């Protein structure tokens, strides 16, 4: 049973302009003008996972129905997304020497792919490393590419690699993913698993200290509540939740409760709201369902190397599996329920967008980034003004980058850049 604590009156006008939960049908000129002026950033873009797909190009316009992708340059332009944090993601595997070495190489490969994408499309994208870069790159008519790491697994073998990543542009790092690692306990995937470290390990605490010195934003998303509490206490700079939801709207271990949201805001942090359906509502996905879904992807050699024909077959099989298990689909209203609740709890100055595009995010009516203007209109309909919407779209993220970097150790930054 979902526990919902929400000011329903705030959402009435938004719902009234929607069609069956799919969001506003018309985007007003006012909404368009607000979005055009704002710096629109999403703090969790898993799109680099697509860079290795045969024949897939960031400069081509794809469709979610066609190949399952949610971000590309044409749709960024269409949806008004100026950029965000492009993720170096490494799934958690073995925690022995062989696993750590494999993770190290996977992380470096993904980092290279992001930088190569930017270099190959210099007329459309530009690497960003400071808060001021966001406005400058937007003004130049390009898309903004900050780099983040989801799961610190690639630096388990050698934490000093963090300095190398910083030199290459890394400006945000999360410690864990869906299972525990050497740095921190994970929040798991529904019900929080028993912790291994009681939150952060000593290695994790040291990584936070080093990230603070370099001015790298510390990301709590995917880590346990105990990790959140310890991060907030130990970090000398505000932290971020790059793609999370509201536990008091839907009790899922990946979401964060109101008490902690308030504590985050009090310390100057920002929570970016996720759009992954299974974190927004109870979809009915059982362990058996997830196991069958995993087998489908494994039958095609995994998600990354699929051909277009294989991908279409996999999507058809997943759709049939969803029907078999009567999987419920979250929609735009479900997403806005989390977003508006979090704004109410944290205050608009501490909220942003981190939809988890190309990493599992997206709901009915908000399937890809081309639909971003719906969020702007829904915020307007809910009574928020231009200044508040500007902050939520990206201004709060830019402020956080600035504050974290202002607290960095100049000597550590200089040494990393030499």
Automatic annotation (TrEMBL):
Keywords: Signal
Keyword match ATP-binding: no
Coiled coil: none
Keyword Signal: yes
Signal peptide per UniProt: 1-20
MF term (GO), any: metallodipeptidase activity
CDD domains reported for this sequence: rDP_like
InterPro entries according to UniProt: Metal_Hydrolase (IPR032466), Pept_M19 (IPR008257)
Source species, domain of life: Bacteria
Biological processes, Gene Ontology terms: proteolysis
Protein name from the UniProt record: Dipeptidase
């Amino acid at each position: 049973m979902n526990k919902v604590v929400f000011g329903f009156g705030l959402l009435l006008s938004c719902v009234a302009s929607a069609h069956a939960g799919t969001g506003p049908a018309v985007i007003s000129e006012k909404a368009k003008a607000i979005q055009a002026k704002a710096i629109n950033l999403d703090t969790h873009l898993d799109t680099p996972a697509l860079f290795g797909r045969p024949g897939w190009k960031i400069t081509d316009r794809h469709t979610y129905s066609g190949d399952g992708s949610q971000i590309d340059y044409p749709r960024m332009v269409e949806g008004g997304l100026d950029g965000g944090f492009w993720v170096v993601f490494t799934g958690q595997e073995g925690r022995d020497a062989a696993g750590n070495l494999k993770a190290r190489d996977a992380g470096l490969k993904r980092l290279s792919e992001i930088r190569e994408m930017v270099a190959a499309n210099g007329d459309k994208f530009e690497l960003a490393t400071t808060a001021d870069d966001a406005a400058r790159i937007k003004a130049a008519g390009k898309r903004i590419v900050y780099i983040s790491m989801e799961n610190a697994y690639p630096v388990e073998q050698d934490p000093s690699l963090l300095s190398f990543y910083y030199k290459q542009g890394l400006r945000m790092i999360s410690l864990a993913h869906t299972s525990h690692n050497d740095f921190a306990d994970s929040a798991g995937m529904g019900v929080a698993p028993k912790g291994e470290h009681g939150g952060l390990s000593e290695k994790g605490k040291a990584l936070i200290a080093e990230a603070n010195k370099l001015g790298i934003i510390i990301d709590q998303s995917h880590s346990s509540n105990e990790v959140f509490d310890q991060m907030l206490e130990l970090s000398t700079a505000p932290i971020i939740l790059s793609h999370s939801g509201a536990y008091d709207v839907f009790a899922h271990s990946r979401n964060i409760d109101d008490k902690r949201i308030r504590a985050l805001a009090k310390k100057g942090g920002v929570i970016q709201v996720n759009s992954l359906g299974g974190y927004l509502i109870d979809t009915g996905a059982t362990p058996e369902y997830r196991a069958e879904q995993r087998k489908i992807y494994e039958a095609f050699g995994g998600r990354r190397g699929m051909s277009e024909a294989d991908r279409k077959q996999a999507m058809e099989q997943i759709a049939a599996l969803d029907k078999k298990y009567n999987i419920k689909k979250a929609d735009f209203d479900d997403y806005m329920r989390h977003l508006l609740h979090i704004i109410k709890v944290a205050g608009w100055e501490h909220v942003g967008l981190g939809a988890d595009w190309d990493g599992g995010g997206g709901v009915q009516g908000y399937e890809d980034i081309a639909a971003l203007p719906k969020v702007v209109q829904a915020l307007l309909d809910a009574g928020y003004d231009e200044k508040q919407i500007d902050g939520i779209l990206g201004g709060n993220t830019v402020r956080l980058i600035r504050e974290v970097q202002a607290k960095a150790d100049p000597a550590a930054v200089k040494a990393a850049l030499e």
